[in-house]
């Protein structure tokens, strides 16, 4: 095994062990936000972390089977991976200018009295409603191409489906919080794919 093959394997292993859990972390949190607000927001992170840990342990224990199929080093895959990863980095820089860490980890949703939520509608949020999710998808797709393992592509596909399920769950909470302002914002701004309008 060459050094680059080891790097590809390490990337695939990282995606396999951490990828699904990173999104599954939010599934016990977003749908039950009002419950966690009642009993204490710290328990939400315990629940999310438990889901992440269980997912990581199960996938790590199956890594030899799941990482048994790989497609070798491919110039096309590497090129695609670099382009997607560059887009991931560029988009991450965009939303990081606007999003505070406490918002990133969900505190305004879980403790709104202590951390008031602000509806972001400008900058990158004026182009798409969920730049973080798009950035995650681009990043995982890019790293999957760089690794060129079947399981890594499977993780990227799983994340796409999971995020498409998670978006309406999260947006239901946003409509409850911001009301007509969010409904109008959702009408104007696409979720993940920006609209490119011709200039008149």
CA-based shape: globular
- Radius of gyration, Cα only, in angstroms? 19 Å
- CATH class (first level) name: Mainly Alpha
Question: Given the helix and strand composition, which structural class is it?
Answer: mainly alpha
Largest sheet: none
**Average pLDDT over all residues:** 92
Approximately how much helix is present in the residues? 55-70%
Q: Classify the beta-strand content into a percent band.
A: under 5%
Give the distance, in angstroms, between the N- and C-terminal Cα atoms.
Answer: 56 Å
Say what the CATH topology is: Four Helix Bundle (Hemerythrin (Met), subunit A)
State the CATH architecture.
Up-down Bundle
Q: How many strand segments?
A: 0
**Helix-strand sequence:** HHHHHHHHHH
Number of domains: 1
**Contiguous helical run count:** 10
Task: Provide a descriptive summary of the structure in words.
The chain is mainly alpha-helical. The chain has one domain (3-188): Four Helix Bundle (Hemerythrin (Met), subunit A) (Up-down Bundle), CATH 1.20.120. The chain has helices at 3-24, 33-39, 42-61, 63-66, 75-96, 101-104, 107-110, 131-147, 150-178, 180-188. It is globular. The N and C termini lie far apart (56 Å). The mean pLDDT is 92.
């Amino acid at each position: 095994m060459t050094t680059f093959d080891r790097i590809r394997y390490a990337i695939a292993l990282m995606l396999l062990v951490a990828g699904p859990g990173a999104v599954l972390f939010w599934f016990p949190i977003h749908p039950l936000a009002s419950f966690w607000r009642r009993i204490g927001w710290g328990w939400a992170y315990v629940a999310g972390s438990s889901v992440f840990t269980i997912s990581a342990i199960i996938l790590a224990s199956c890594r030899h089977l799941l990482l048994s199929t790989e497609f070798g080093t491919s110039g096309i895959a590497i090129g695609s991976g670099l382009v997607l990863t560059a887009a991931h980095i560029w988009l991450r820089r965009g939303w990081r200018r606007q999003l505070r860490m406490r918002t990133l980890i969900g505190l305004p949703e879980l403790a709104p009295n202590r951390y008031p939520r602000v509806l972001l509608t400008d900058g990158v949020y004026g182009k798409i409603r969920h730049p973080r999710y798009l950035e995650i998808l681009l990043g995982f797709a890019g790293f999957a191409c760089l690794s060129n393992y079947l399981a890594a592509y499977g993780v990227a596909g799983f994340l796409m489906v999971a995020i498409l399920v998670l978006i309406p769950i999260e947006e239901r909470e946003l409509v409850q919080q911001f009301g007509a302002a969010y409904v109008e914002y959702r009408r104007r701004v696409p979720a993940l794919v920006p609209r490119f309008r011709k200039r008149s």
